[in-house]
Amino acid sequence: MSNEIQLVSDGVGLAVIGAPTDVERFFLEQGLNRTSSKDLDLPRLGPILGAGGTTAQVGAELAANAGRWVKLTAESAEAVKKYGFMPTKTPGVSHAMIGRPGEIKQWLQIAQGPGALLSGPLALSALSTIMQQRALQQQMDEIVEYLQEIHEKVDDILRNQKDAVLADMIGVDLIIEEALTVRDEVGRVSEITWSKVQTTSMTIARTQAYALRQLDAIAESLQNKADIGEIAKATKDAEPKIREWLAVLARCFQLQDGISVLELDRVLDASPEDLDRHRLGLATARQNRLGLIAQSTTRLLTQMDEIVRKANSKVLFHPVKSPAAAGATNLVAKSLLSFCERLGIESGPRVLEAKLWSEAAAEVRDKAMVLTAEGAAAAGRLYDKTRDRAADALREVDVDGVPDATQVLSAAKNAGSTIRGLVTGAADTVGSRLGRRRGAVDSSEDVDPQTADGDPQAPGS
Questions:
Q1: pLDDT tens figures, 378-435
Q2: How many angstroms separate the Cα of 363 from the Cα of each of 315, 434, 437?
Q3: What are the φ and ψ backbone dihedral angles of 106, each rounded to 5 degrees?
Q4: Considering the entire predicted model, what is its pTM?
Q5: Same domain assignment for residues 201 and 65
Q6: Is residue 71 in some structural domain?
């Protein structure tokens, strides 16, 4: 029926089903056209939705309708939640039926249950399976973009490795890519095609585990470095290695997603009654893989933050090596954060940056001035207390007609003024003293600190 569309969400993506013009209008009005979307290939649902001898009728309805899938973002989820999605009997899937009755120009909820097109016993299960496949394919596309951005050809990396585990990945890559090509051409995954693919998961898992161990070993090696110069060199040397192992991990994850796409197709054909359990199981397994990768990347990011803290704490005495260590660290962190973003791993905020020499010197000066000011206040309080006690003790004494208390008070006041003047002067001159000592901070450095951090106030300026 015109002006009616069905919305189906699994929490990851949104499926929009209806007449082609209505689907297109909805995407434009909700701003979903600005996000990459994929066709749902509804005719594939015909055999499942046609149970009960109505295959021809369902097939005709499918041919007259269009289905588009789009990944849910914060903005798109906010745009569609107003339509009152209702949970369905299919685990994790919610549905809304909306339309434009009469002359109403905005979309309104017109029914709570699925329409006739999705009312079959396995209809929503089959649709949610296809939606999960589209999400996996979207992730695979994003990984390809990531690999292109970092200019890494994983096949070249694998070929340059002598380890048998990595060498086996080349053959697995070819098998999976071939199976996906055949699937796109045929529209399904045959038993023959699946028999070639189902044994490849072990190789991918071994390669992923190997890459994670390499990243953990790099993190441990950096953790054991104490000298700031060694840290700077080790971090710089580790950066290209970390980038390569991240590329291998990304490729492993992409291939695992490809196997899941093929596996869901196979279950859709061979055991449709197991669809819900199987797709949920695959989603859980995928989340577990992400968790393992997140552990290693988080450990590396934590180590990078620790290096920056250590470098910043020593920048006053190592104005060249400390910024070099922090700079190399930030380069590694940038690669890690880009990788985590592409795979959807929450990495948390990271705000540590390299500290300039002048910033460290200013902090030391400010602390010294605070301590000196506190000392001045304490000296003043001690003077006042001592003066009062002395005055009380001598107040009644009078020698040669001159009150001794007055003499004591006069002498104490003069001494107190001298103390206050000396302490205040010390506070005022701390900054200038630090400035004179900058040039002698670390005679072992062979590069001008002014050049090292680009700060006009650095030593030698």
A1: 555 555 665 555 455 444 444 444 445 455 445 445 545 554 554 455 445 444 444 4
A2: 12, 11, 15
A3: -105, 155
A4: 0.70
A5: no
A6: yes
Same domain, 301 and 156: yes
φ, ψ (nearest 5 deg) of residue 175: -65, -45
Asked if 337 and 397 sit in the same domain, the reply is no
Q: Both 193 and 316 in a single domain?
A: yes
Q: 114: which residues sit within 8 A by CB, 6+ positions away? A: 6, 88, 95, 97, 123, 124
**If 0-12 CB within 10 Å is exposed, 13-18 middle and 19+ buried, where does residue 262 land?**
buried
Higher pLDDT, 439 or 345: 345
Give the pLDDT band (50/70/90) at residue 155: low
Q: What DSSP state is assigned to residue 389? A: H
Least confident stretch, 112-126, 283-297, 343-357? 343-357
In which domain, by residue range, is 252 found? 152-343
Find the angle CA(128)-CA(134)-CA(135) to the nearest 5 degrees.
Answer: 90
Does the residue 349 lie in any domain? no
Which stretches within 224-274 are classed as H helix? Answer: 228-270
